[in-house]
Design goal:
The protein has about 140 residues and is of the alpha+beta class. The chain has one helix and four strands; from the N terminus they run αββββ. A two-stranded antiparallel sheet has the order 1-2. Strands 3-4 form a two-stranded antiparallel sheet. A hairpin with a 6-residue loop joins strand 1 and strand 2. The chain is elongated. The mean pLDDT is about 80.
Length: about 140
């Protein structure tokens, strides 16, 4: 009888492990992330600045920064107000240029912004970004 209880216990452990593994790989519990859409022109918003999407918008307070076309009439409350550098007081750029090559992040989880190379930004703000731009 004692041997049968041990075998039953092992079988239950194996069944629980198999069921747990199948649920982990089935994708249950994961939210499907839909791309954000512009509330004005209904265009899919980009997470990166491009020539086609130069306008920085923030749909929720302290939410992620997205980029939209400059043709839609976005309300001023949705436009992202780019902060100033705490060191040199220059308005930070939302995209890399030759004049603003230093990538910084002022708040944890905030957007990557760019400052001038003459600025001596503290190391806690600096961000390593792979260069994806073309010269």
């Amino acid at each position: 009888m004692n041997i049968h209880l041990k075998k039953l216990g092992l079988i239950l452990i194996l069944v629980a492990a198999i069921v747990g593994a199948s649920l982990a790989f089935s994708g249950h519990g994961h939210k499907k992330v839909m791309p954000a859409k512009c509330p004005v022109c209904h265009m899919t918003l980009s997470t990166h600045w491009t020539k086609a999407t130069p306008v920085a918008v923030q749909l929720k307070k302290n939410g992620p920064v997205y980029y939209c076309c400059n043709k839609c009439k976005m309300p001023k409350s949705a436009l992202y107000k780019v902060p100033k550098c705490p060191v040199c007081h220059m308005t930070l750029s939302t995209h890399w240029t030759k004049m603003t090559p230093v990538a910084v992040r002022l708040t944890k989880g905030g957007p990557v912004l760019y400052c001038c190379k003459g600025c001596h930004m503290p190391a806690k703000y600096l961000v390593h970004v792979k260069k994806t731009h073309k010269k």
